[in-house]
Every structure is written in C-alpha cells, then in structure tokens.
C-alpha cells in the first residue's frame, strides 16, 4: 500500500514533481493562443498554419493519452512520466528554434506525444505514492496549483511574446524539465509495471489518432486545397474512424471498451462534453486573436484580459461541485452551458474600440460563471455514471473526448465562419468571422444544454466523487482517479 505522507519531505518533492510536469503541458495549452498573431507574422504563416499550430499538438495528445497511461502501468509510471517530460522538453526546444511554420507544426505534434506520456502520469504518481489518508488532499493541491498555472499562463505568455519573443513560450519548458527530471528520479518512488499484463491496443490508438488527423486536415484545408484532395482525406478519416470502432468492438482488451457506453448517463455526459468543449476550444482560440487583431491589444494585454474566466474557475468550482452533489447534476449541466452561450453572445460587442470594462469583462464574467456551474459537476457525473472500478477509464475517455472536440472546433470554425487564409491580417474581415464563430459556439452550447436536460439524471447514492474539485483548466477536464485501468495494458 502507498505510504508516503504529504507532510513528509518526500511527499512535498513528489507534489512538486507532478505539478512541474503537468504545468508544462498546461502552460502550453493556455499560452500558445496568445502568441499566434506574432507567430504568424514572424513565420509568414497563413490562418491554416495557425490552426495547425494548435491542432497538431491536440491530435497526438487526444489520440494517444489513453495509451500513454497504459504504458505507465506496464513499464512503470515514474519511468514513463520522466520520458514524457524529456520528450516534451526536446519537442519544445524544436518549437522554439523552428525556422518556419512547417517545422513548428511538426514539433508541436511531437509535443503532443510527450504530453500524452506525462499528463496521465502526473496524477497516477500521486495516486500510487501517497497514503490513502493524504491522497485526496494531495490531489486537491495538485489540481489547485494546476489552476494557478492555468491562471497565470496567458499573462506569462503575453509577457514573453511582448518581451523576449514568442519562442520563449516554448523554450520556457526546457528549464522546467531540467528541474523536474532530477527531482523525479531522486524522490519519486516507482509504481506499476508488475501487475500489468496483456496486449497494448496500439492499433486502436493509431486508428483513433489517424482519424482525428485526417478529418482535421480536411476541415482546415477545405477552403484552400484542391477539392479532390480534401474529399479524399475526409473519406480516409471517416474510414479510419469506422475501423477504430470495429477494432475496439473486436479486441479482447480495447483501449476504449464499447460496452462502457451502455450507460445512458455516461453517453449523455460525453455528448454534453463534446458540445461544451468544442465551444470552449473554439472560443479561446479565436478570442485571443480577436483582442489583438481587431481590438488592438498587445499580447500581454490580451492574455491578462482572459484571466477572469480562469480565476472564477479556481475560486468557485469547489462550491459548484458541492452544490451539484446536493441538488444533482441535471440543473447545473443545463444552466451552465446556457450561461456560457450568453457570455459568447456578449462577445459580439467586442469589436474595434471596445471597452474592457463595459464590453470584454462582462462577457468573460458570464462565461466564467457558466464554466464554474458546469465543469465540476460534469467531471463528477462522468465518474458516477460507471462502476467505481472503471472510474479512471471513464475519466480518460471523457478527457480525450474534450480535447478531440476542441481540436475539431479549431479546425471547423474558420471554415464555417468564412475566414480566408489571411483573415488574421485583416481586422474587418476577422471581426465579421469572429461574430459568426461565436454564434456557432453558442449554438453548440445550447445543444449541450438540451442534451443534459433530456438525458442526465442524478447518480445513484454512494457513487464516487472526484477527489479534486478545485479546477482551473479551461480546455479539458482534469484526469480524475486512476487514469487508466490495468486491463488497458
């Protein structure tokens, strides 16, 4: 049984290691959006290249995150976590020295692989190391520090872009890794690796990632590439998606067991997740661009402007989780998306000459309150909709679904809104397209609200509650419980 106490020196080192590792991936997910306009100008990149700068990372992360956790169970969680940190740092270095957009995009895809190795590993190390009496508090501190990282991320990103330059957004990960790896090797005990047996579902992971990549390519390139190529890529993506479903149904140890979706509650909550995180992913991608391209903010000002949503999440999500535990998840998951939709519609007022206090802040406050209302109950309901023994698997699937929804939104919204290849260089055109995009995002949130109202019910008494209620992440829910089950490895 794990016996490390949180108050011990080793316990504090373990917490520091996991916070540093997860912060690397979390910071990149929050600061890159702020840097996009400067990246585009410096590398002479078009809108599609900026989309790929975000999505190349998300494709490999979403497609491989479950497999990354299984590798930790098989070969040792500390070992795989350290490999992920080193991999992420090397890929970050490649991003920071990229001479053109093509190299940057390739390096971002490599970053996603590292993220898939270290993201589930950070929480798994806490679960496997701390004494049960201290585990809940340790996970809460891990989540809380992660929320602080998410809160300061846009501010730090903006400061780096306006100061040393956008390349330091990526290069910052190198010293973090140099600090994290020695601490992990010296102070974090190894876990896993002994009881895990069976086959890896590598084929399932490859098919899932391929489907995401091909469909994303078709959406991003639909406006500019040859129509036949786009159509062929879309068909190939659809074929890969169907093959993924077939493989998962036939394997004895699938990465994503289809029978988990026999729970109506689990299926409904994941549909809500797809709607909510598609809208949020699209919003945070475009809002940073809108504030800089149209309103005229600096990168630092744009990053700072977005802080209220994360601050509200960090301060109030624990209370939201407690409220939902008393009244049930149906009302929060119905009202929360509607508040988020109202916040995005309020962003329609954010155009040339917009006032931060009168126009930007009210929209972000309403959006943040909506996120506070829905995120913690959503995570708790995911865990409560399946047997306790499958809570980690359910959380991992939900996390992957959220990230996949975000990357599809980043790929699809510019197409749906009619953004041209040079849209971010033309404030007037971008402003019009941003307004259309916010309408699409609000529509997705309304759909999510309707699904929640129709299909989400109160979990049965005694269901597993999430151990970390204080959440600061805005682009995907946290991994809760055991990130993966031994049956996956």
TrEMBL record:
Key word Transmembrane helix present: yes
CDD domains xref list: MFS_MMR_MDR_like
Q: Where are the transmembrane segments?
A: 12-36, 48-68, 80-99, 105-126, 138-160, 166-188, 200-220, 226-247, 268-289, 295-318, 330-348, 360-388, 400-417, 437-456
Organism source for this protein?
A: Streptomyces coeruleofuscus
Q: What is this protein called?
A: MFS transporter
Which Pfam families does the annotation name? MFS_1 (PF07690)
| NCBIfam families noted in UniProt | efflux_EmrB
**InterPro entries reported for this sequence:** EmrB-like, MFS, MFS_dom, MFS_trans_sf
What keywords are annotated for this sequence in UniProt?
Antibiotic resistance, Cell membrane, Membrane, Transmembrane, Transmembrane helix, Transport
| Chain segments carrying region Disordered | 469-489
PANTHER family from the UniProt entry = EXPORT PROTEIN (PTHR42718:SF42), MAJOR FACILITATOR SUPERFAMILY MULTIDRUG TRANSPORTER MFSC (PTHR42718)
PROSITE patterns, from UniProt? Answer: MFS (PS50850)
Limits of the Major facilitator superfamily (MFS) profile domain: 14-460
Q: Where in the cell is it found?
A: Cell membrane
* UniProt topology in membrane: Multi-pass membrane protein
Where is this protein chiefly located? membrane
């Amino acid at each position: 049984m794990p016996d490390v106490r949180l108050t011990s020196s080793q316990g504090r080192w373990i917490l520091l290691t996991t916070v540093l590792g997860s912060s690397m991936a979390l910071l990149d997910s929050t600061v890159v959006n702020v840097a996009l306009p400067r990246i585009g100008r410096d590398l002479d990149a078009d809108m599609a290249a900026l989309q790929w700068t975000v999505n190349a990372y998300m494709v490999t992360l979403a497609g491989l995150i479950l497999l990354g956790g299984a590798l930790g169970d098989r070969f040792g969680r500390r070992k795989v976590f350290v490999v992920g940190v080193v991999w992420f740092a090397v890929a970050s270095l490649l991003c920071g020295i990229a001479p053109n957009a093509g190299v940057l995009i390739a390096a971002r895809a490599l970053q996603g692989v590292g993220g898939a190795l270290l993201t589930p590993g950070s929480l798994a190390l806490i679960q496997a190391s701390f004494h049960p009496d201290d585990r809940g508090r340790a996970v809460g501190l891990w989540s809380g520090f992660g929320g602080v990282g998410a809160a300061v991320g846009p501010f730090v990103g903006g400061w780096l872009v306006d100061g040393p330059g956008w390349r330091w957004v990526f290069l910052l990960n190198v010293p973090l890794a140099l600090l994290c790896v020695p601490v992990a090797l010296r102070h974090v005990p190894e876990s896993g690796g002994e009881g895990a047996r069976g086959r890896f579902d590598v084929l399932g992971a490859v098919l899932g990632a391929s489907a995401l990549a091909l469909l994303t390519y078709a959406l991003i390139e639909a406006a500019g590439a040859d129509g036949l190529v786009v159509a062929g890529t879309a068909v190939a993506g659809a074929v890969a998606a169907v093959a993924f479903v077939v493989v998962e149904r036939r394997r004895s140890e699938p990465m994503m067991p289809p029978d988990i979706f026999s729970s109506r509650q689990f299926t409904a909550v994941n549909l809500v997740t797809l709607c909510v995180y598609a809208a949020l992913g699209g919003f945070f991608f475009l809002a940073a661009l809108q504030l800089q391209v149209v309103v005229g903010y600096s990168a630092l000002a744009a990053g700072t402007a977005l802080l209220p949503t994360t601050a509200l999440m960090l301060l109030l999500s624990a209370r939201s989780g407690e409220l939902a535990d008393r009244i049930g998840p149906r009302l929060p998951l119905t009202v929360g998306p509607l508040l988020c939709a109202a916040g995005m519609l309020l962003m329609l007022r954010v155009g040339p000459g917009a006032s931060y206090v009168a126009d930007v802040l009210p929209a972000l406050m309403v959006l943040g309150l909506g996120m506070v209302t829905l995120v913690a109950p959503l995570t708790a309901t995911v865990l409560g909709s399946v047997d306790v023994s499958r809570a980690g698997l359910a959380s991992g699937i939900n996390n992957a679904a959220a990230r996949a929804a975000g990357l599809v939104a980043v790929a699809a919204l510019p197409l749906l809104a009619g953004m041209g290849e040079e849209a971010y260089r033309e404030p007037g055109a971008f402003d019009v397209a941003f307004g259309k995009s916010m309408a699409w995002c609000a529509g997705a949130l309304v759909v999510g609200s309707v699904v929640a109202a129709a299909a989400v019910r109160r979990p049965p008494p005694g269901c597993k509650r999430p151990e970390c209620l204080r959440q600061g992440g805005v682009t995907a829910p946290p991994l809760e419980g055991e990130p993966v089950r031994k049956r996956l490895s």
